[in-house]
Here is the input.
Amino acid sequence: MFIGHYGPSFALKAIRPAIPLWLLFIAVQLVDIGWALLVLLGVERVRIVPGITASNPLDLYYMPYTHSLAAVALWSTVAIILWKFLPRSRTWSAAALVGLAVFSHWLLDLLVHGPDLPVYDDTMKVGLGLWNYPAIALLLEVVLLFGGMAMYMRRTTAINAIGRFGPPILGITMIAVQCYLFFGPPPTSPAAAAISALVSYVVFAAVAQWLDRQRRSATVQP
Ligand SMILES: [Zn+2]
Here is the structure.
């Protein structure tokens, strides 16, 4: 899953406006950021196999440190502790929402991945395989993204035209990127897939944060 991961980012921002949107954008993709870095380091492994699923050509055959259920539980716990205490003390409930953002990645990946998500280490792999039904997988990504965004838009008010039209334009741009990934040519190498993932995660987080500054939320609870 790609753009659908940002549905929880927007929804959690609507629930708890004090958490920065950029952080929620990074949190929902944290394990994919780790995955991209570990692929570049040769620790986790992927190969390009066009046709392995109907919409995603990545054979994600070894990713125990980022995409096992046990690892994601650990990543989520670390995120909770970091957000609770660094660089200052915050409420446990806000920290729990950041941990939930991290954990949401695995739950949403579970819907679309083939059986390549280990429960622990590199064994007991699961995945419901919606990537084999591109129209349904794409619809799911769009519904999640725009569902979360609708919650966020209701809880915040635009202070200018950028704030009003920026988020939907960002959403449509994300759909275009998702369509390219689903229906465009496969990546040229695992490193190319990892680098383009990293770049898109950073760019989307930066743009979302910039757009969020053009909107105002009703109440801020720390
Ligand atoms: Zn993932």
Remarks:
- The beta strands are 45-48, 58-62, 117-120, 123-126, 156-158, 215-217.
